[in-house]
Design a protein that fits this description.
five-stranded parallel β-sheet, globular, seven-stranded mixed β-sheet, RNA-binding, 25 helices
Length: 805
RNA sequence: GCUGGCGUGGCGGAAUUGGCAGACGCGCGGGACUCAAAAUCCCGUGAUGGCGACAUCGUGUGGGUUCGACCCCCACCGCCAGCACCA
């Protein structure tokens, strides 16, 4: 027998697949389509990581199996290539990011190719390609046109050392990831996308798709819809109001003071009436010095701080009581209205604050067995209202209803829905991203670059270093910045910020449908045929960013008629991380990184694919084991040696038939439900049976190769050819099983006495209850004779249980 | 703190969703082949007791439901992930 040399076999078949264009797909509308998608990688300088092949192999198995089942399968790959690491590397090494990207992409591509994936490389996309980002810019302009892109002053992370704004990911433990200087919050004018306008649609859409539950929950929590009421408190001696959002308007009679965020505009507005303005400004400045990290870090059980606003009091609209107003950083400007009504009796934060500042605490929901002055009573979803005037005696729900009625009648409040979701900060003061196609004109304001001028090319610059002021490197390029206003023809200045990395990845799945189209992001015909994506797998870390952003863009494109379905992904799953052999996350500093190239070289791509699918449940983290890899290679060696015991035969031998049908069923089911580990285990078991038997016929081996092919495509093609079969495994039809043949004629059932196993007997599969029990009684006579029978239980195919006294 | 998930041999993990716990793989022990080793093949492998057939115990802890519980219910402990002063 020929020796199994994985390097030769794998190279041979990869070349053949290339030559045959084996996995290039055409828009053949006569066949049912299947769109399998994996998240495209960021082509980093480090190359492929052993974490990448886990989802890629999983979806490659799905794609290969669906092809064998007669589907026209789109399984594409591309590059999410804009981004910071490339830019930083370019700065350090003085190489243009475009060149860095090209090198990285070609390295990645080689590595993916060596793993034998069935990607359709004719549809490769690259987000940094102008013919691609032309359409990213087009979508931005559409958003702008529909009022969903706007400029706003927002707080950003500012590195005091590099004098540059940082993405959240670049802030580590409150300091700059690169230079270690403290990071503070700073206000800057940024492009924003109004994802909040789509909050409800994004929430509702979740009910129509098949995502694993944990993803749905996380998205729902992130969107954070809560229903409550807006309540307007008067400000004594003025016409102004202080508006708050509350989910508990029933507790309004218990509101004994108010708190506003340090940045609340009301403070500056009444600066001349406020007695202690200096103190308040000092407090605000202190709060602003804190980075997000510090604010969050200290949040949990931090002592409450705050300052009373002297000279301003609020009027409670239900009883016209005047109550004090405080500033405190526990109230966030970014949620609700930036102001709250404090009900210390029933909110732990308000209670802590009230205790510290000696404010009154009034119980308004009964039910606590303690005095609310001694202990806060926050759990008040049930309970009866007390000390609450016209809603006394009502339960919480009724009280809320009546209160909203009252507020609406008085014009002092209304029902209101609030979201945690914030608008999407869309500007980056960076070079390596899509230029934002907007011109600022003194006369006309922000003006869109005309569609026929897209793509707005990213110009060549001399240096990618950010400027001292934190502006994008593009701002130093006068020839780029200065232009004519597209509207009035007067002097204009181009936007110099670029888009975040999330932009290009928010629609790439659409481009795969029609990647070379120059007139549209994809033709309607192609979109109609291919979309939505049938199965999308990706990392859990993208659930609230990429996954939500792309759903938002897609829904918007649907609303303007650019795409044909409202939700982009029918099904979403997530893979678990691959940890180092020490159970820790793989990283250079921990020294536990495994390079996939080494595994491919030493054991072969098929081994790596098999191992990563066998390592454990797909959605759970799994730690790397070199011994486990060897075990998988050993299995492939044993598969190869099946040639030694090969005999003639063009149908399954009788003694193996049941096992074979069981295995087809098991593998088919497991490959469709991400249970690759047990599917592979079933194949290992079947192999063990053939080895034990000492022979396998050609029909049986051929079947085995077809079942194993999606996981280990190279070795199976080679063996298929060696045993003299025609054609290719990847073009075979996926086998079906006969349900009748998956069950044995006789079954072993256990016989229990009082629930305890005593004997095992062999009976006909379709034995009736009485005969089964009779046979059972006979087998366990020594335990039941002489006892009274209480109950007899028969579970077909499983057991007989005789309960005696 | 909130949300979601998990807890099973020496290890990675199975268990048709209430029906023989530990499939499959790793590791380990023994044997065959070999001058020897590697590779390969065969046998064994939850714990305790027994030469043995076998018996008892055993799925984080404590209780419960049931003829029967890794699975369902109640309480608790521990770990992982995400969010976190969200009004």
């Amino acid at each position: 027998m020929k020796e199994y040399v994985h390097s030769e076999v794998e190279k041979k078949w990869q070349d053949i697949w290339d030559r045959e264009e084996a996995f290039c797909v055409s828009d053949d509308h006569s066949k049912p389509k299947y769109y399998a998608l994996v998240e495209f990688p960021y082509p980093s300088g480090q190359g492929l990581h052993v974490g990448h092949p886990r989802p890629y192999t999983a979806m490659d198995i799905v794609a290969r199996k669906r092809r064998m089942q007669g589907y026209n399968v789109l399984f594409p790959m591309g590059w999410d290539a804009f981004g910071l690491p490339t830019e930083n590397y370019a700065i350090k090494e003085h190489i243009h990011p475009k060149i860095v990207t090209e090198n990285n992409v070609s390295h990645f591509k080689e590595q993916l190719h060596a793993l034998g994936y069935s990607f359709d490389w004719n549809r490769e996309v690259n987000t940094t390609d102008p013919s691609y980002y032309k359409w990213t810019q087009w979508i931005f302009l559409k958003l702008f046109e529909h009022g969903l892109a706007y400029k706003a002053e927002v707080p950003i992370n500012w590195c005091t050392g590099c004098k540059v704004s940082l993405a959240n990911e670049e802030v580590v433990d409150g300091v700059c990831e690169r230079c270690g200087s403290p990071v503070v919050r700073r206000v800057k004018s940024q492009w924003m996308l109004k994802i909040t306008e789509y909050a409800d649609k994004l929430l509702e859409g979740l009910d129509t798709v098949d995502y694993i539950e944990k993803i749905k929950t996380q998205q729902r929590n992130w969107i954070g819809r809560s229903t409550g009421a807006e309540v307007d408190f008067g400000i004594a001696g003025t016409e102004d109001i202080l508006r708050v959002f509350t989910t508990r308007c029933d507790t309004l009679f218990g509101a004994t003071y108010m708190v506003v965020a340090p940045e609340h505009p009301l403070i500056e507005k009444y600066a001349d009436r406020i007695g202690n303005m200096d103190e308040i400004r000092a407090y605000r400045d202190e709060a602003n010095k804190k980075s997000d990290f510090e604010r969050a870090e200290l949040s949990a059980d931090k002592e409450k701080t705050g300052v009373r606003i002297e000279g301003l009091t609020a009027v409670n609209p239900v009883n016209n009581t005047e109550i004090p107003i405080y500033v405190s950083d526990y109230v966030l400007m970014s949620y609700g209205t930036g102001a709250i009504m404090a009900v210390p009796a029933h909110d732990t934060r308000d209670w802590a604050f009230a205790k510290k500042f000696g404010l009154p605490i009034i119980e308004v929901v009964s039910g606590s067995d303690k005095d609310v002055n001694e202990e806060c009573y926050p759990d008040v979803s049930e309970g009866i209202m007390v000390n609450s005037g016209f809603i006394d005696g009502l339960n919480v729900k009724e009280a809320q209803k009546k209160m909203i009625g009252f507020l609406e009648k008085e014009g002092k409040g209304r029902e209101k829905v609030n979201f945690k979701l914030r608008d999407w900060i869309f500007s980056r003061q960076r070079y390596w991203g899509e230029p934002i196609p907007i011109v600022h004109c003194e006369k006309c304001g922000y003006v869109a670059v005309p569609y026929d001028e897209l793509p707005l090319m990213l110009p060549e610059v001399e240096s990618y270093e950010p400027t001292d002021t934190g502006e994008s490197p593009l701002s130093k390029m006068e020839s780029f910045v200065n232009c004519k206003c597209p509207k009035c023809g007067g002097p204009g200045k181009r936007e110099t910020d670029t888009m975040p990395q999330w932009a290009g990845s928010s629609w790439y799945f659409l481009r795969y449908c029609d990647p070379h189209n120059d007139d549209a992001l994809a033709s309607e015909e192609a979109l109609k045929y291919w979309m939505p994506v049938d199965w999308y797998n990706g990392g859990m870390e993208h659930t609230t960013l990429h996954l939500l952003y792309s759903r938002f863009w897609h829904r918007f494109l649907y609303d303007i008629g650019a795409v044909t379905c409202p939700e982009p992904y029918l099904k979403r799953t997530s893979h678990g991380l691959i940890l180092g052999s020490n159970n820790e996350k793989m990283s250079k500093s921990r020294g536990n990184v495994v390079n996939p190239d080494d595994i491919v070289r030493d054991y072969g791509a098929d081994t790596l694919r098999l191992y990563e699918m066998f390592i454990g449940a797909f959605d759970m983290a799994a730690s790397w084991s070199d011994e486990g890899v060897k075990g998988c290679r050993r299995f492939l060696d044993r598969v190869w040696r099946l040639q030694d015991i090969l005999v003639d035969g063009d149908s399954y031998s009788q003694d193996m038939e049941t096992r074979i049908h069981q295995t087809i069923k098991k593998v088919s089911g497991d490959f469709d439900t991400l249970k690759y580990n047990t599917g592979i285990a079933a194949l290992m078991s079947l192999l063990n049976d053939f080895t034990k038997k000492g022979s396998i016929n050609k029909a049986e081996l051929s079947l085995f190769l077809v079942l194993l092919n999606p996981v280990a495509p190279h070795i199976t093609e080679e063996m298929w050819e060696l045993i003299g079969n025609e054609g290719r495994v990847y073009r075979q039809t996926w086998p079906s099983w006969d349900e009748e043949k998956t069950v044995e004629d006789t079954v072993e059932i256990m016989v229990q006495v009082n629930g305890k196993n005593r004997k095992t007997i062999s009976v006909a599969r379709d034995i009736d209850k009485d005969s089964a029990i009779a046979a059972g009684r006979e087998a366990v006579a020594e335990w039941v004779d002489g006892h009274d029978t209480v109950k007899e239980i028969f579970v077909p195919g499983r057991l007989v249980n005789i309960v005696v006294k």
